[in-house]
Amino acid sequence: MRILLSVILPACLAAQAPTEPPPIIQLVRKPGVASASVRPYGDARAAINVVGLTAITGLPETWFVEAHDNWASIEDLDKGLVSAGYRTPDNPGDLMQDDVLTPSRTMLAAFRPGWSYRADQAIRLFPRARYFQVTIYRIRAGTESDFSELLRLRRLSQDSVNLDRPDIAYSVISGAPSGTYIFLSPIVSLRTMDEGVANVPAWAEGLFDERKKARTAIAPESQLSREHLLFRVEPRISYVSDEFAAVDEKFWRLKQ
C-alpha cells in the first residue's frame, strides 16, 4: 500500500527554479513504492530540488532525482542526513531503507551537454513534467567515441524533423559499472507520444540513412544494453523549492 505524504518545505530552502541542467545529479533507486518517503530531505533541511518518480513500466521502483550544483552540495546533504539521524554506523548509506524491501541504490552522475538533445528546453520542462522517459545505456570499454558519433547523428536527425522530445544526458561516475549513461526526458503529457515523428524532409534523408548505417556498424560493438523506462512524477514524494513549484502550485503542493 502506498503511503501518501504532504510535504512542508523549510523556509531556508535555497534551490531556485531550474534554468540550466544541474552539473551533478544523485539518483536514489528504491525497489517498490510502499514506503517511499521524502521526509529525510525535509528533516535534513536540504537546499536542493528532488523530483520523486514511480515506475509505470519495468519492475516496481521509486526514483529520487536530486539536482546538485556542485560537490559541496552533495557533502552538505550528506552532513544534513547524518545530523538528522538517517545515516549512522549501522546504516551508512541508505537514507530510505526499511525492514521489508531491499536497500536502495544510489548513483552519482555528471551532465554531458554534448550528448544531450536541447537540454536547455528539457530542464525548463521539469516543473511541468508529469512523466519521465528514462533510457539507460551500458557501453563497452573503449567505445565511447563510437557511441558519441551515434548520438551526434541522432541529434541531427531529430533536428531535421524538429522533434520536440528534449533530453538531458548524464554519465554515471559512481554507483554503477563504468560505461553507464542515463538520459532523462521530461514529458508533459503522454498524448505527445501519439504525434509520432514527422515525415523526413528530402534534404535530411541522407542523415537518416547515415544514422542507420552507423547504428548497424557501431551499435553491436559498442552497446552492452539499452533499457527504456517510463515513470510518473509524484508530487507527494518530491521536495522542491517554491520557485520550482510556482509553475503549477496546485500540482506540486498537493495536500492529502
Overview of this protein structure:
This protein has an 8-stranded antiparallel barrel. The longest helix has 18 residues. Helices cover 27% and strands 25% of the residues. Helix 4 runs antiparallel to helix 5. By secondary structure, it is an alpha+beta fold. It is built from 7 helices and 8 strands.
Keywords:
alpha+beta; eight-stranded antiparallel β-barrel; single chain; 7 helices; disordered N terminus
Compose a concise summary of this entry.
The chain has helices at 39-43, 71-83, 119-125, 144-160, 205-222, 242-245, 249-252, and strands spanning 24-31, 49-55, 61-68, 105-111, 131-139, 168-174, 180-187, 223-233. It is an alpha+beta fold.
What topology emerges from the helices and strands here?
Elements: E1 24-31, H1 39-43, E2 49-55, E3 61-68, H2 71-83, E4 105-111, H3 119-125, E5 131-139, H4 144-160, E6 168-174, E7 180-187, H5 205-222, E8 223-233, H6 242-245, H7 249-252
Antiparallel strand pairs: 1-3, 1-4, 2-3, 2-8, 4-6, 5-7, 5-8, 6-7
Helix pairs in contact: 4-5
